[in-house]
Every structure is written in structure tokens, then in C-alpha cells.
Amino acid sequence: MAKERFVETYSQGVTNVRKIIVDTETGVNYLLISSNMTSGCGIAVLVDKDGKPIVTPIDTENQ
User: Fold this and answer.
1) Is 5 exposed, middle or buried, given 0-12, 13-18 or 19+ CB atoms closer than 10 A?
2) pTM metric for this prediction
3) Helix, strand or coil, per DSSP, at residue 60
4) Which residues contact 35 (CB under 8 A, 6 or more apart)?
5) Structure letter (DSSP) for residue 62
6) What is the pLDDT of residue 61?
């Protein structure tokens, strides 16, 4: 089975959802926010204090 491109690493809330999603190819972290299940959602790259993307180290040996 192929490895999933995006994985959820954090989740908070049921109707007001906040999730952190990591791209398993680049390690870039994204914040996904949904205020409720019917009004859609938004996604943004998480950045550090210098404005650079937050990157989770990727285990390339198991890919």
C-alpha cells in the first residue's frame, strides 16, 4: 500500500476544528481550520518566528 501524502498530527475540537497536517514528502506543516461542518474551511502553512515554514523531519529510510 502506498504511503499517504498528508498525515494528521494534531486535532482539536469537534465543530470548531483545528488540525495540523504534515506533508510526508516535504515535512511542511499546515494548519487546517473549520468553524463548523457547513461553512467550509481554511488552510495555511505554519511558520516560525522568522517567517520560515515549520518543517517536520521526514524519515526517508522507511519511504
Assistant:
1) exposed
2) 0.82
3) helix
4) 15, 16, 41
5) G
6) 63
